[in-house]
Amino acid sequence: MRGRENINMPRPNAYALTWRLPIIVWQFLFFVGPLLFMVAMSFFLVKNYRMIEAFEMKNWVKMFGRNYFWDSYWLTLWLATLSTIVTTLVAFPASFALAFRTSETVRRWAIFLLIIPFFTSYLVRTFSWYTILAESGVINAMLGSIGIDPITMLNTKFGTIVGYMTLTLPLVVVLQTFALANIDRNLVQAARNLGCPPWRTILTVIVPLAKTGLIVAALFCFILSFGDFVAPYYLGGSKPPTLPILIIDTTKSGQQWPRAAVVAVVMMATLITIAFAAITLAYRKRASA
Amino acid sequence: MSASLVEIDGVVKRFGDFTAVERMDLTIDQGEFIAIMGPSGCGKTTTLRMLAGLEDPTEGTIRIGGETMNGVPPHKRDTPLVWQSLALFPFLNARENVEFGLKMRGFDAATRKRKALDWLERLDIGEFAERNVDTLSGGQRQRVALARSLVTEPKLLLLDEPLSALDAHLVIRMQSVLTKLQRELGITFVYVTHSQSEAFAMADRVVIMSKGNIAQTGTARDIYRTPANRFVAEFVGRNNILSGTVTAATAENTHIETPVGTFTVIPEGPAPAIGQAVSFVIAADLVNITDQPQNTENSLSCTLISEEFIGSMVTLFLEAADGTEFKVQVQERALGSLDLKSGNALHLGWSADSAHLLTGETP
After folding, report:
1. Less packed terminus of chain B by CB within 10 Å, N or C?
2. Residues of A in contact with B74 (CB under 8 A)
3. Helix, strand, or coil here: B242?
4. CA dihedral angle for residue A14, residue A20, residue A25, residue A31, rounded to 10 degrees
5. Residue B349 CB neighbours (<10 A)
């Protein structure tokens, strides 16, 4: 009915172009330019700790031939996926409550409070987990008081996920809340009217209606987790390293910037593919026969 | 009519300080097509939502099929509602929309599909079964919504202004679809509307609501010819309302003195007392209009203000000496040689039995 047959793109005119120019220039200077340079650099060579312009496949062959590269790749992909699933599931009940069970005023305050964590550096917030998760930290002290042996939480995958969620959970709750608050309540009532019990409306009506927003929230979570250096390094123990840690390690060992560029290009390619797939899925309308 | 299906017994609905339904007593028979009509905010939609269980009455009882429904959640009732907005699920195609209620009732996929396709076929939209509902026209979407509500074979169908978004010619088409369906299925339709033509054209019985109360219940003809009170007379439209004092009253005739003259009315019930203030209505189509003074029981001279031509019928708007407005509805071909220049003096007349005394109080 809407937007299908005629999305009338206005012809670019001088006025529109003038206002669009800054963002276009910015994107070319600081995104497209560096990206192209990075791709080019992945073909350079390093001799005597110096980078030489070249066009050789050596770095690519070397990195793709190493098990540690693939170990890092699959680990990073797995941790980011796990983070996305866990964050989405943990965030949903909170977002649902904010969207459907609270007044407009409460929702506004909740969103304000969810933005506050972004006031402080993510690094600082990550370090604060030390006092909670450490062997001698708050949680183990409490467990100890009831006679349970300390649990190792720092330098584990659990620690990494906790770190990722520190970064992503507030954002995902905000995005999910917006998605859920905007759905047409009549449709939820219509489902109830047609015999759908309240709990079942979540999967039959609410999730499909909020699909676009929920997927975009999950995508943000994935992108932020996939590219994050802080959580796997400080809370995850960096062994085996995730891709961002691998980039740092590679540049440190023998000035291997070109090999680091290979890792970075692979990361970009992965993120672009996943983002494209997610957005396609998010906006996919049902195929019409 | 057979046994009653719905009993609304002393129902009151308040939202905080606002009273949506002040008091409602209504019994709806099995197989009846009932229309609830009234202006916005009269409580008609709230009543419908209470029948569907989307609202619970503040006071009073609603029984459906003899069972008390207070506190029964919507999904445990069999009261499908056709929404004003249609509320079709945009993420499902036409057939899947129709299947929704069957799926909730645990029918297997093959049965669901067969029943859904049967209904879409029955409503002449079988060819659009696999289409995205966004790509259907207003009339087609309407039929999908109807099929979705009827596929579970309910005893009671609730309709909330379902035709209000359609073009005029589609409204007429859908009206005949609805009346035909209702007659064939023999189920009860409760149809909420603000449109007099929809209510009168389809319903066995019309309920007029005003400010959370029932102003009148009756057949379309009852309501049109014998409005119970001033609100109904005005709401139904095309009525001339005169107010005055009773000067003489016999069993057959009541004389009422009004600012524009004294008129004779034949009361249907007991005659009003002398000195009582009363109002009566004369339907616009029961007034004779001529260019010569009339020698009937009730006559009046007026000035023509304007005319409204709607095809076979013409409505003339006139004004009496003191500014009281009069409407007269005549067949276009019956106008004859009347000179319809605005400002012309014309003469109105009606028989005593075409006037109707308003006896009830306006809620």
Report:
1. N
2. 189, 192-193
3. strand
4. -150
5. 17
Q: Measuring CA to CA, which residue among A223, A140, A1, A92 is closest to residue B135?
A: A1
The single residue listed with the structure tokens 């409005």 is: B227
| A285: DSSP letter | P
CA A134, CA B239: separation in Å to the nearest integer? 85
**Alpha-carbon gap: A199 to the closest alpha carbon of chain B (Å):** 11
Residue A242 confidence (pLDDT) above 60: yes
Is the per-residue pLDDT at A265 higher than 50? yes
ipTM above 0.90, yes or no: no
Higher pLDDT among residues B157 and A8, named by residue: B157
* Torsions phi, psi for B21 (to 5 deg): -125, 120
Two tokens, residue B362: 């306006």
Contact (CB, 8 A) for A107 and A182? no
B73, B83, B104: residue with CB nearest A186: B83
Strand partners, B43: none
Domain ranges of chain A: 70-283
Q: Which residues of B touch A194 (CB under 8 A)?
A: 75, 80, 100-101, 104, 148-149, 152
Contact of B139 with chain A, judged by CB distance below 8 Å, is answered with: no
pLDDT tens-digit profile of A28-83?
999 999 999 999 999 999 888 888 899 999 999 999 999 999 999 999 999 999 99
Cα distance between residue A114 and residue B50, in whole Å: 38
Sign of CA dihedral B112, B117, B118, B122: positive
Q: Is the dihedral of CA B227, B233, B237, B238 positive or negative?
A: positive
Kindly report the CATH class assigned to A70-283: mainly alpha
Q: Is A197 on the interface with B (CB under 8 A)?
A: yes
Does position A287 have pLDDT exceeding 70, yes or no?
no
* Chain A CB within 8 Å of residue B91 CB: yes
C-beta of residue A54 within 8 angstroms of C-beta of residue A45: yes
B43 three-class SS:
coil
User: Does residue B336 surpass a pLDDT of 80?
Assistant: no
Q: Are A72 and A242 in contact (CB under 8 A)?
A: yes
CB-defined contacts A:B, below 8 A: 74
Look-up of token digits 């996929």:
B109
B87:A288 CB<8 A: no
Gap from B78 CA to chain A (nearest CA, Å): 8
- Neighbouring residues of A273: CB distance < 8 A, sequence distance ≥ 6: none
